[in-house]
Amino acid sequence: MSGSLLAELVEICGPGAARVARSDDRVAGRHADYVAAPATSNAVARLMRLASERGLGVRPRGSGSKIDWGTRPGRLDIVIDTVRLHGMWDHDGSSAIVAAGTPVEAVQAALARHGRRLAIDPPSPGATIGGVLAVNESGPLRHRFGSPAGQAVSVALVDPAGELVDLAEWESPAPGVITSAVLPVEDLPAERRWVVRPVSTPTEVNDLTTRIVAQEFGLSAVEVDMPAVGAGSFAMLLEGTAGFVAAGAGRLARELGPLATIRTEAPEWWGSYPFRPSDVALRLRVRSRDLHAVGFVLRDAVGAAVAVRGSVGAGVVHAVLPRGLSPARIGDIVTGLEQVLMARRGRAVIVTAPPDLAERIPMAEPEDLF
Q1: Could you say which DSSP state residue 67 is in?
Q2: pTM over cut 0.85
Q3: N or C: which end of the chain has fewer CB within 10 A?
Q4: Start and end of every FAD-binding PCMH-type domain (predicted)?
Q5: Exposed/middle/buried for 112, CB within 10 Å: 0-12, 13-18, 19+?
Q6: In Å, what is the CA distance from 359 to each residue of 32, 70, 349, 352?
């Protein structure tokens, strides 16, 4: 059967576009049998119908930057590589159609030649449009523009039965393989400035966030970086015309006091995660005014300071748990956080963990990331 299945995959995807999986073709530690790289939505549909008829487990893959996020697949027979679902069209107006396997960086570079951009900035290196939408991955620009799921005008996918579906909204995930999306496009800002100030406690971050967000600064992003050891950093991004940005940055710096600096370049940590694939990382979603309380609860639960980074103004940050914690201890920490967050209309989920831990702790389900 294995030879027959590979032949069918080649017949669907074309010569050289399907193969036996290599040792690194894994999802959360589970090894795939085959990798197929379809070039069209119809080919994706044929693959999904084949998998449905045979009872095979399928997982799509873009760049692979988030392939291990969330729950481990119960079965993994075929990885559908979206690398050949590539391209962008109809981008002359207020939106663009982008194929799922297209890297976000490539889209931004192409749009920049016309003075345009997508208002998404995922932290994952090499992130593709499909991968960003699949886990609702957002970066600093979430503060002003919202999450990618909220921005999407429509999403095209192939469902598990092999049917092509067009969804008018993407506020929650749907099973299947994303093939393309219609996303809003906007003009590139003429100027950008970051106003940065050192911070040392969650309470200080809360005070600054509350004070700044309540005022009319027109901020594109409000971010915080609080390492487990050492001083932290509070940073805001202003975008727009040269006059607007210069005036706003000056006002912000005066509001934040003599420690604030105005920069033409982002801080080194900006737009990146505080965790590595070998870490246990939590995504915390809570109202910005409650983040400081959650930070203290997390520190008390762990028994030590925890690295936290993310969009404090939008109420979405990531935290890194210390290494060496047992699965039971990790579960207790998450349960304790959930109890605190429930009253604050927030969530705490584990987005990534080493494979040996991921199968023994409560990992995020797709809907938990939306």
Answers
A1: T
A2: yes
A3: N
A4: 27-206
A5: exposed
A6: 17, 10, 15, 11
- Token digits for 227? 């390492």
80, 363 contact by CB (below 8 A) = no
Per-residue pLDDT tens for 34-63?
999 999 999 999 999 999 999 999 999 999
Token pair recorded at residue 52: 């449905």
The size of the chain, in residues, is: 370
The label of the residue with tokens 């219609």 reads 182
Domains along the chain?
A: 2-81 (3.30.43.10), 88-187 (3.30.465.10), 191-263 (3.30.70.2190), 280-369 (3.30.70.2740)
Gap between the Cα atoms of 107 and 101, Å rounded: 11
Please, where are the H alpha helices in the chain?
Answer: 2-13, 41-54, 104-112, 129-135, 142-145, 148-151, 202-213, 242-256, 291-302, 327-342, 355-358
Closest CA to 5 of 72, 57, 64, 68: 57
Task: Name the region of 208 (left: φ>0; alpha: ψ -120 to 50; beta: rest).
Answer: alpha
